[in-house]
Amino acid sequence: NLYIERYNGFKLKLKLKQILLRTIDFYLFLHSVHPFERSPFVNQIVRQDIIPCLKLFKRGRVHWNMLLKSIKTSTIEIQRHYNEPTNKSECWFCLRKVVCVWQFRKNNEDSFMDVCSFCRNRVVASCNLYVFLKDLKLHFRSSNAEEQYDNLLKLRLKLFLHRL
Questions:
Q1: Count of alpha carbons within 13 Å of 88, Cβ hemisphere only?
Q2: How far is residue 74's CA from residue 93's CA, in Å, rounded to a whole number?
Q3: Alpha-carbon distance values, 136 to 30, 95, 129, 140 (Å)
Q4: What does the pLDDT look like over 42-83, one tens digit per residue?
Q5: Rounded CA gap, 136 and 153, in Å?
Q6: 54, exposed or middle or buried, with CB in 10 Å at 0-12, 13-18, 19+?
Q7: Which of 45, 43, 114 is nearest to 78 (CA)?
């Protein structure tokens, strides 16, 4: 067993074999000929990180599968309200009555819906991870693979922390 102490003093216990397999999967992803959407590495990250984060919206009006589709097609749009709202409104995702300073829509045909900051951060973290992988696959330079792997781990950690 290997112990790594990082990220604000949290002690992570990982088996060396798991670390090596994840690293190998990453390098295979970078150099594979698979289309991005069919990459086993991308599908694994979507299954392990993005879907569990989006599934936390169980009671909301938007199904996680529709959100994932919007993320994959890059049609999702989140923006700050033009006027600072002062009244509480119902968040479209979690259905809590809070002051929603953000607006969301799945595509250009939908109207904007109110979203609280907590739910907005989850969706943005999911988008950031997916877009990072897509950009990495399209614009990868072999000289910075270790740096990009570190960036991937940071994004996955941020996504995990937004699920808490």
A1: 5
A2: 19
A3: 8, 35, 10, 5
A4: 888 888 888 888 887 667 677 888 888 888 888 889 999 888
A5: 13
A6: buried
A7: 114
